[in-house]
Amino acid sequence: MSHMHQFSGAMAVVLIAAGVARAEIVAGDPVIVPFDGALATIEYLGEEADYTGDLYFLGWGEEIAVIEWATSTDNTGLGQWLANNHNSDIGDTMLLEGTFSAGDVLHFAYNVTEVTDPPDGIATYRTDDRDEGYLHLAWDFETGDFVVEDLPFYESDFDYNDAQFRITFEAIPAPAVLALLGLGGLVSTRRRR
Ligand SMILES: [Ca+2]
Ligand SMILES: [Ca+2]
Q1: For residue 148, how many C-alpha atoms fall within 13 Å in the half-sphere facing its CB?
Q2: pTM to 2 decimal places
Q3: By the 8 A CB rule, do 146 and 165 touch?
Q4: Quick check: 137 and 22 in contact, CB under 8 A?
Q5: Which residues surround ligand 2, an ion (CB under 5 A)?
Q6: Across residues 91-97, what is the average pLDDT?
Q7: Which of 134, 127, 105, 93 is nearest to 33 (CA)?
Q8: Where are the domains of the chain?
Q9: Ligand 2 centroid, distance to 127 Cα (angstroms)
Q10: 138 C-beta neighbours (distance < 10 Å), count
Q11: Nearest bound ligand to CA 47?
Q12: What span, in angstroms and rounded, lies between the C-alpha atoms of 98 and 116?
Protein backbone atom coordinates (compact mmCIF):
# COMPACT_ATOMS: atom_id res chain seq x y z
CA MET A 1 0.00 0.00 0.00
CA SER A 2 1.49 3.36 -1.00
CA HIS A 3 1.70 6.32 1.36
CA MET A 4 -0.61 8.23 -0.96
CA HIS A 5 -3.26 5.54 -0.65
CA GLN A 6 -3.08 5.55 3.17
CA PHE A 7 -3.38 9.32 3.20
CA SER A 8 -6.52 9.23 1.04
CA GLY A 9 -8.12 6.67 3.34
CA ALA A 10 -7.51 8.81 6.41
CA MET A 11 -8.94 11.89 4.69
CA ALA A 12 -12.12 10.02 3.73
CA VAL A 13 -12.78 9.07 7.36
CA VAL A 14 -12.41 12.66 8.49
CA LEU A 15 -14.77 13.94 5.80
CA ILE A 16 -17.45 11.36 6.62
CA ALA A 17 -17.27 12.20 10.33
CA ALA A 18 -17.50 15.92 9.59
CA GLY A 19 -20.41 15.30 7.23
CA VAL A 20 -22.41 13.52 9.92
CA ALA A 21 -21.89 16.34 12.36
CA ARG A 22 -22.78 19.05 9.84
CA ALA A 23 -26.05 17.36 8.92
CA GLU A 24 -27.38 18.39 12.34
CA ILE A 25 -25.23 21.20 13.65
CA VAL A 26 -22.59 23.62 12.43
CA ALA A 27 -19.59 23.99 14.70
CA GLY A 28 -18.79 27.56 15.60
CA ASP A 29 -22.07 29.18 14.58
CA PRO A 30 -22.69 32.15 16.88
CA VAL A 31 -25.68 32.02 19.26
CA ILE A 32 -27.61 35.06 18.07
CA VAL A 33 -30.60 36.45 20.00
CA PRO A 34 -33.62 36.44 17.65
CA PHE A 35 -35.72 39.31 19.08
CA ASP A 36 -35.66 42.24 21.47
CA GLY A 37 -36.53 41.84 25.12
CA ALA A 38 -35.49 38.19 25.15
CA LEU A 39 -34.84 35.97 28.12
CA ALA A 40 -32.64 32.95 27.44
CA THR A 41 -32.90 29.58 29.18
CA ILE A 42 -30.51 26.68 28.82
CA GLU A 43 -31.61 23.10 29.45
CA TYR A 44 -29.26 20.21 30.12
CA LEU A 45 -30.08 17.29 27.81
CA GLY A 46 -27.38 14.73 28.59
CA GLU A 47 -23.91 13.50 27.65
CA GLU A 48 -21.93 10.71 26.07
CA ALA A 49 -18.46 11.45 27.40
CA ASP A 50 -15.72 10.13 29.64
CA TYR A 51 -14.39 13.62 30.32
CA THR A 52 -16.12 15.86 32.86
CA GLY A 53 -16.80 19.52 32.21
CA ASP A 54 -18.85 22.57 33.13
CA LEU A 55 -20.71 24.96 30.88
CA TYR A 56 -20.62 28.69 31.66
CA PHE A 57 -22.31 31.78 30.27
CA LEU A 58 -19.53 34.29 29.65
CA GLY A 59 -21.83 37.14 28.71
CA TRP A 60 -23.06 38.76 25.53
CA GLY A 61 -21.54 40.89 22.81
CA GLU A 62 -20.46 40.56 19.20
CA GLU A 63 -19.54 37.41 17.31
CA ILE A 64 -15.86 37.72 18.16
CA ALA A 65 -15.98 39.27 21.60
CA VAL A 66 -17.83 39.56 24.88
CA ILE A 67 -18.91 43.13 25.62
CA GLU A 68 -21.05 42.66 28.75
CA TRP A 69 -19.70 40.01 31.09
CA ALA A 70 -21.94 37.82 33.22
CA THR A 71 -21.34 37.87 36.97
CA SER A 72 -18.94 35.14 38.05
CA THR A 73 -20.53 32.46 40.21
CA ASP A 74 -17.27 30.70 41.11
CA ASN A 75 -13.51 31.27 41.01
CA THR A 76 -12.96 30.21 37.39
CA GLY A 77 -13.62 33.71 36.08
CA LEU A 78 -15.82 32.22 33.37
CA GLY A 79 -19.04 33.97 34.34
CA GLN A 80 -22.32 32.28 35.22
CA TRP A 81 -22.08 28.54 35.89
CA LEU A 82 -24.81 26.64 34.06
CA ALA A 83 -24.32 22.87 34.23
CA ASN A 84 -21.92 19.94 34.68
CA ASN A 85 -22.10 17.07 32.21
CA HIS A 86 -21.74 14.41 34.92
CA ASN A 87 -23.51 16.02 37.87
CA SER A 88 -26.44 17.97 36.45
CA ASP A 89 -29.76 16.18 36.06
CA ILE A 90 -31.24 15.82 32.61
CA GLY A 91 -33.91 18.47 32.28
CA ASP A 92 -32.20 20.94 34.63
CA THR A 93 -32.68 24.48 33.38
CA MET A 94 -30.89 27.74 34.09
CA LEU A 95 -31.98 31.27 33.20
CA LEU A 96 -29.09 33.20 31.69
CA GLU A 97 -28.27 36.46 33.43
CA GLY A 98 -29.67 39.42 31.55
CA THR A 99 -32.30 40.57 29.06
CA PHE A 100 -31.10 40.51 25.47
CA SER A 101 -31.75 42.36 22.21
CA ALA A 102 -32.02 41.10 18.65
CA GLY A 103 -28.56 40.47 17.23
CA ASP A 104 -26.78 40.10 20.56
CA VAL A 105 -24.36 37.17 20.46
CA LEU A 106 -24.33 35.01 23.58
CA HIS A 107 -20.95 33.63 24.58
CA PHE A 108 -20.24 30.40 26.42
CA ALA A 109 -17.28 28.47 27.81
CA TYR A 110 -16.92 24.73 28.32
CA ASN A 111 -14.35 23.97 30.99
CA VAL A 112 -12.97 20.42 30.92
CA THR A 113 -12.01 19.59 34.51
CA GLU A 114 -11.43 15.82 34.60
CA VAL A 115 -10.03 13.67 31.79
CA THR A 116 -9.50 9.97 31.11
CA ASP A 117 -8.04 9.03 27.74
CA PRO A 118 -6.30 10.80 26.12
CA PRO A 119 -5.01 12.27 29.40
CA ASP A 120 -3.98 15.66 27.98
CA GLY A 121 -7.47 17.02 27.37
CA ILE A 122 -7.73 19.59 30.16
CA ALA A 123 -8.87 22.73 28.35
CA THR A 124 -11.34 25.59 28.30
CA TYR A 125 -13.21 25.98 25.02
CA ARG A 126 -14.78 29.40 24.50
CA THR A 127 -17.02 30.85 21.82
CA ASP A 128 -14.99 34.09 21.92
CA ASP A 129 -11.75 32.20 21.20
CA ARG A 130 -11.39 32.52 17.42
CA ASP A 131 -8.22 30.42 17.36
CA GLU A 132 -9.93 27.05 17.68
CA GLY A 133 -11.94 27.04 20.88
CA TYR A 134 -15.19 28.29 19.31
CA LEU A 135 -15.28 25.25 17.01
CA HIS A 136 -15.79 22.96 20.02
CA LEU A 137 -19.30 24.37 20.55
CA ALA A 138 -22.09 24.03 18.02
CA TRP A 139 -25.56 25.57 17.92
CA ASP A 140 -28.52 24.70 15.72
CA PHE A 141 -30.67 27.82 15.52
CA GLU A 142 -33.67 25.80 14.29
CA THR A 143 -33.83 23.36 17.21
CA GLY A 144 -31.88 25.39 19.76
CA ASP A 145 -29.61 22.40 20.37
CA PHE A 146 -26.22 23.48 21.70
CA VAL A 147 -23.60 20.73 21.88
CA VAL A 148 -19.98 20.32 22.86
CA GLU A 149 -16.99 18.39 21.54
CA ASP A 150 -14.69 17.96 24.55
CA LEU A 151 -11.70 16.15 22.97
CA PRO A 152 -8.71 18.08 21.60
CA PHE A 153 -9.10 18.23 17.83
CA TYR A 154 -5.81 16.47 17.11
CA GLU A 155 -7.29 13.27 18.56
CA SER A 156 -11.01 14.00 18.56
CA ASP A 157 -13.95 11.78 17.59
CA PHE A 158 -15.94 14.89 16.55
CA ASP A 159 -19.19 13.35 17.85
CA TYR A 160 -20.33 16.63 19.47
CA ASN A 161 -22.38 14.81 22.09
CA ASP A 162 -20.07 15.17 25.10
CA ALA A 163 -22.36 17.71 26.74
CA GLN A 164 -25.74 18.48 25.21
CA PHE A 165 -27.97 21.46 25.88
CA ARG A 166 -30.85 23.38 24.36
CA ILE A 167 -31.11 27.16 24.33
CA THR A 168 -34.59 28.68 24.18
CA PHE A 169 -35.61 32.32 23.97
CA GLU A 170 -38.83 33.81 25.27
CA ALA A 171 -40.13 37.34 25.46
CA ILE A 172 -39.77 39.07 28.81
CA PRO A 173 -43.18 38.78 30.57
CA ALA A 174 -45.51 41.74 29.99
CA PRO A 175 -45.70 42.83 33.66
CA ALA A 176 -41.91 43.09 33.73
CA VAL A 177 -41.95 45.25 30.58
CA LEU A 178 -44.53 47.54 32.18
CA ALA A 179 -42.41 47.74 35.32
CA LEU A 180 -39.36 48.69 33.25
CA LEU A 181 -41.37 51.33 31.37
CA GLY A 182 -42.67 52.66 34.66
CA LEU A 183 -39.14 52.83 36.00
CA GLY A 184 -38.03 54.64 32.84
CA GLY A 185 -40.84 57.15 33.24
CA LEU A 186 -39.85 57.75 36.84
CA VAL A 187 -36.23 58.35 35.87
CA SER A 188 -37.33 60.78 33.11
CA THR A 189 -39.50 62.69 35.57
CA ARG A 190 -36.65 62.99 38.04
CA ARG A 191 -34.23 64.12 35.33
CA ARG A 192 -36.55 67.00 34.37
CA ARG A 193 -36.44 68.47 37.84
CA1 LIG B 1 -18.91 11.48 23.02
CA1 LIG C 1 -16.43 13.78 21.51
Answers
A1: 35
A2: 0.79
A3: yes
A4: no
A5: 149, 151, 157, 159, 162
A6: 98
A7: 105
A8: 3-173
A9: 17
A10: 20
A11: 1
A12: 36
